[in-house]
Write a structure and sequence with these properties.
The protein is mainly β. The longest helix is centred in the N-terminal third of the chain and has 10 residues. A hairpin with a 2-residue loop joins strand 3 and strand 4. It has one helix and five strands, in the order αβββββ.
Length: about 120
């Protein structure tokens, strides 16, 4: 019985990421291989959806780059994700924020919600 648990722990190299929901602004540090070199690219944007369950969970991050909206889907279990930092917690009333695709400028802003951390409580 103990050998099974040890084997599961050895293969479970699951990354521990902070909890975030759609509407939050996150920075994803993503490892990119270019030839024989490897670098980390910071991708900062708003989480517009989270879908999937368990190991197959993935999230979509949207950012504006040179006035053009760019969306990227990241699998949660990807070995190329170095870390995820939650920059702002947004206050939204739905799970899929597709309406942000039509909005630009100040209209595309998301109000910030206050989050009580364990230190404050």
């Amino acid at each position: 019985m103990d050998l099974i648990k040890i084997a599961e722990q050895a293969f479970a190299t699951k990354n521990e990421f902070p909890d975030f929901i759609p509407g939050d602004t996150v920075t994803v540090a993503y490892r990119i291989k270019e030839g024989n070199k490897e670098r980390i690219q910071q991708y900062r944007g708003v989480v517009i959806k989270i879908n999937g369950e368990g190991d197959k969970k993935r999230f979509t991050v949207r950012k504006i780059s040179d006035g053009i909206g760019v969306e990227r889907i990241f699998p949660m279990d990807s070995p190329f994700i170095d870390n995820i930092v939650v920059n702002k917690h947004g206050r939204v009333r739905r799970a899929k924020l597709y309406y942000l695709r039509k909005l630009t400028g100040k209209k595309a802003r998301i109000k910030e919600r206050r989050v009580v951390t364990k230190k404050e409580a």
